[in-house]
Specification:
It contains eleven helices and eight strands. By secondary structure, it is an alpha/beta fold. The termini are far apart. It folds into two domains: 259 residues, Rossmann fold; 44 residues. The chain is 40% helix and 9% strand. The strands form two sheets. The chain has a six-stranded mixed beta sheet with strand order 2-4-3-6-7-8, with helices on both faces. A two-stranded parallel ribbon has the order 1-5.
């Protein structure tokens, strides 16, 4: 809803007759938007193609629009990856009191509102949750964290037993731009539906996580793409028709006040253009036949559009699953490449260390003692001269010569 620095209780549009279901829808309108302006901007005031507001078509629905916190404390990134999460998480005690939250700060904001409305409407399966753009991500996060709020009620209490029996919400609606980008709420739902979710950590410790996943998996989901453009003053775009069709498909009672409320199970839902009354100059029967033919044509067109939308959603789901499989294969290949690179690096290090160790252990080779020069007796302390090693005296005479100076033998 509107950003509020001082959080207040949600903006509520009461049902026109009775109360069978509650729609909790997360808007994020600018700060300073007053209640009068909010009433004209909220989902319940939007019109389908036949010019009727959603509130008029679903008179037994209570519409709740929680306000978003302005400048809330930074969000815990383990639960929300988008900047939008800070508007719905980590509220102060004063915020919880002002918003009318029974469990205070011990449980998530939106999850508490879902459980409180479940008490009022008579069950979790009477509550429809949704959002638009980033608020759809926050709404889906709350759907996956209901167990945290349920655990806030003491085990022996009747409320605890009441919530223990709840396994599904009535429905979830995420409105997004018309493109092929996979949104976070879609991705989380696909993963939980196919693989049972990423939490739990093996076989143990996953009780609450598994219950959270079961609530998400059992809740009917509708992802509406595009249709944001307001067509005329009495038609707010195709996404409103899609939203109304989804409510009817999950058996939310519809019909104008003063008439018998019907459900999708009993009567097909149509959202056709208004048809003018009898044309002057024609019989009443012919006019009624023309009107019926026109309505049948509109019904057929609407059915064909729903069929095409389902086909697009199935193709989109197939692409998402293919992307998930491709990412898993790429991750395994990357891990294997990293393992091989680490092995080669370790082998190179070991070879280098072995080479260094071998070089350090090589001994110094010395000449044999027989090849070393001996010093003659009496010359041990004399300095070595060029002729000392050849036994020649200082005057250059050979000391080994047996002849005397005259050349005669002695």
């Amino acid at each position: 809803m509107a950003l509020r620095q001082n959080l207040t209780k949600p903006f509520v549009v009461e049902p026109l007759s009775g109360h069978t279901h509650t729609v909790i829808f997360l808007h994020r309108l600018p700060a300073g938007t007053d209640d009068k302006a909010l009433r004209a901007k909220v989902l319940s005031s939007k019109r389908t193609k036949d010019g009727k507001t959603l509130r008029l078509q679903f008179p037994t629905v209570r519409w709740m629009f929680p306000h978003a916190k302005l400048h809330a404390r930074p969000d815990d990134e383990s639960h929300n990856n988008s900047n939008n999460g800070k508007h719905w998480e980590n509220l102060s005690s004063e915020d919880c009191t002002n918003a009318g939250l029974e469990l205070g700060t011990s449980a998530p904001y939106i999850a508490q509102l879902i459980l409180q409305e479940a008490q009022t409407a008579g069950g979790l399966d009477k509550v429809v949750l949704g959002g638009q753009g980033e608020t759809a991500h926050a709404a889906h996060d709350a759907l996956g964290r209901l167990r945290e709020a349920m655990n806030g009620y003491a085990a022996p209490s009747a409320l605890h037993a009441f919530f223990e029996a709840q396994t599904t919400c009535r429905g979830f609606v995420g409105m997004h731009p018309d493109n092929d980008q996979v949104t976070r709420d879609q991705r989380d739902f696909m993963i939980v539906s196919r693989f049972g979710g990423g939490g739990g950590g093996g076989g143990g410790g996953g009780g609450a996580e598994n219950i959270n996943n079961s609530v998400v998996r059992n809740t009917p989901h509708e992802f509406i793409r595009g249709g944001y453009k307001k067509v005329s003053s009495i038609w707010d775009g195709k996404r409103i028709d899609d939203f109304a069709a989804f409510l009817a498909s999950i058996d939310v009672a519809h019909g104008e006040p003063g008439t018998t409320a019907t459900t999708a199970a009993s009567t097909p839902t149509t959202f056709s253009s208004r048809v003018s009354g009898p044309i002057e100059g024609r019989s009443s029967d012919k006019s009624n036949n023309d009107k019926n033919n026109h309505e049948i044509s509109e019904q057929q067109k609407y059915a064909d559009e729903i069929k095409r939308q389902k086909q697009r959603e199935e193709e989109h789901r197939t692409r998402i699953l293919r992307q998930i499989e491709d990412q898993k294969i790429e991750r395994r290949l990357r891990l294997e490449r990293e393992r091989v690179n680490r092995f080669h690096a370790e082998q190179a290090t070991l070879q280098k260390k072995a080479a260094e160790a071998t070089a350090a252990s090589v001994p110094i080779r010395l000449l044999p003692a027989s090849t070393q020069h001996s010093v003659p007796s009496g010359h041990e302390n004399k300095p070595m001269t060029p002729w000392a090693s050849n036994n020649i005296d200082e005057d250059g005479y050979d000391l080994d010569d047996d002849d005397d100076e005259s050349g005669f033998e002695a």
